Amino acid sequence: NSLKNKLRDEKVRAVLLATVMSLASIIIILEFTDTNLSWNLISHVQAKFLALALVLHMFSWIFYAVRLRFLASLAGHEITFRLSLVSTLASNFLGALTPSSAGGEPLRIKILADNGMSYGRATAVAVGERLLDSIFFVGALALFLIFTNFLTGFGLKVGVFFFVLLFLILIFLWQLVSRPERISGFVTWIKKKTGNRPIVYNLEKEIWVFRDAGIQLAREAVRRTPVVAAVTALIWMCDFLVPSALLMGMGSDPRFLLSITSQIILAIIAILPLTPGGSGVAELSMSFLYSKFVPPLLLGPLVILWRLATYFSNIVVGAAFAGASINGM
Question: Which of 262, 309, 316, 317 is nearest to 47 (CA)?
């Protein structure tokens, strides 16, 4: 009970910290506009477009769950769509409170392991998801920068940095696959340092399972590239269209291409471990990017509604599922 209470208290503190940071950044943004007029604009946004924004974000959850179930199947473990959706929502909640949008992976791995998947195989699936997202971000950013020529210098810097990081990760994973003797050497070194404790043998087993599952998953994913690529694109395009739906609700030009380009850059920034759920950084970064093509008067309302439709909906909806999963630890 004491452990559960401690976890609950830490979760509450994380929610409060993330909320305070997000609200503080929104207040800063509103300081540069007419606050009263901004709230007036929010109150007059067309309800159908607010609903559309929420539905788009909900579809991103659904497509994420579809992909997770598909990848788990490719890795040799069948899960239900319900479990996949619960895992998605719960990990989204944790990701909103950790210093990276990728922070929900440990909980997703734990949920999959509770369903009978080995930790090594579940980790391979989680890593596979993030690699697919990263490859999509790099490719989509390059494509949209060519079509829009929007903040090409800044976009290229973000893209190149992220590409280098992705390249280094791929090299590490390739070494894991092609040079298994290095794994053996590392494990042997760990055994000597820890006195051959049983936990090291369990860790060794999961490392080898992770390697084998990763090879299997990569092989199967390559064979089904069109399906995996299409579902990944659907996940993110649903989310990337949320600001355009909100702009239409405010009677403004949706600026689809520029908005999607900005969202790709924001998605890459959100992966970096800066603040809980990107709180503060996301709002200020969006304000900077959208100030290039959205009237200043609309910036505050747009940022507020965007965070409500995406970030805070992840917290509200995912809280119950995350709570049940954490309590089961």
Answer: 309
Q: How far apart are CA 326 and CA 127, in angstroms?
A: 21
Q: How many Å apart are CA 134 and CA 173, to the nearest integer?
A: 14
CB atoms within 10 A of CB 153: 7
Angle at alpha carbon of residue 98, lines to 93 and 103, rounded to 5°: 75
In this prediction the pTM is 0.87
The pair of structure tokens assigned to 269 is 């920034």
Q: H helices of the chain, where?
A: 2-31, 35-43, 47-74, 81-95, 105-114, 119-148, 152-178, 180-194, 198-223, 225-240, 242-249, 256-271, 281-290, 296-307, 313-327
Task: Return d(Cα 163, Cα 106) in angstroms, integer.
Answer: 24
For 270-323, how does the pLDDT look when each residue is reduced to its tens digit (9 = 90+)? 887 666 656 667 888 898 999 999 988 888 889 989 999 998 899 888 887 776
Produce one character per residue of 277-313: b if its CB has 16 or more CB atoms within 10 Å, e if not. bbbbbbbebbbebbeebbeeebbbbbbbbbbbbbbbb
End-to-end CA gap in the chain: 12
Residue 208 in tokens:
């080898």
